[in-house]
Amino acid sequence: MSQTVDRALSILPLLAEGPADLGQVADRLGVHKSTALRLLRTLHEHGLVYRQSDQRYRLGARLFALAQQAVENLDVREIAHPHLVALNEKCGHTVHLAVHEENEVLYIDKVESRYPVRMYSRIGKPVAITVAAVAKLLLADLPEPERRALAEKLDYPLYTSRSTPHATAFLAELAKVREQGWATDLGGHEESINCVAAPIRGADGRLVAAMSVSAPNVVVTAEELLTLLPLVRRTADTISREYSGTAIPQ
Prior knowledge:
Layout: H1 2-16, H2 22-29, H3 33-45, E1 49-51, E2 57-59, H4 61-73, H5 76-91, E3 94-101, E4 104-111, H6 133-140, H7 144-153, H8 167-180, E5 183-186, E6 193-201, E7 207-216, H9 222-226, H10 229-244
Antiparallel strand pairs: 1-2, 3-4, 3-7, 5-6, 6-7
Helix pairs in contact: 1-3, 2-3, 5-10, 6-8, 7-8
Organism: Streptomyces decoyicus
Domain HTH iclR-type: 2-61
InterPro entries: GAF-like_dom_sf, HTH_MetabolicPath_Reg, Tscrpt_reg_IclR_C, Tscrpt_reg_IclR_N, WH-like_DNA-bd_sf, WH_DNA-bd_sf
């Protein structure tokens, strides 16, 4: 039975390359045509493959519907949370998870610092979009015309002397973030708070969320916080692999 399932599943990546006839499927699987036909008929009955008028087979609409349903039902917060907790236990600082929705960047999870000095961020609260590290990552992933249009519409409050002052500076910062693959907020929102952030990507490579580690200067300096960047990026990569279904089973 396991061999039959394995052969049937092997047909799907073959058809992902393009339509194939019965002989091509049989040759790829290394089986007789009658065996390949039985497998194709079973997949066809479930809507996973479709036989065209030229007798070649292609992937079926049901497969795409299942994939879309699976993506829609993925909960990045549920997947990320244990990894955020593990990161917090290693470094002790506040860890955030954020997403881009309806022209806002929102915190959807937070693990508190173990230190007495706490941040006032709250789950469900929008971030300071022109300075927050998670916002820079999420907006940098937008196509260039969307980035430019959004940047021109935003206000640029000067929270501190390090805040992003205008659209030109913001677009330059997003271009830099897009190229390097990570972001910082070093006193841009609050003089005493620094933050480093890394992207969480889906199977298509696009960002689905961003995560960050934040800490006040009285706990660690900006330079000390930046030494955590490799750990933050590894955590984000682990979440990305698990979210996109490419994590290696333990």
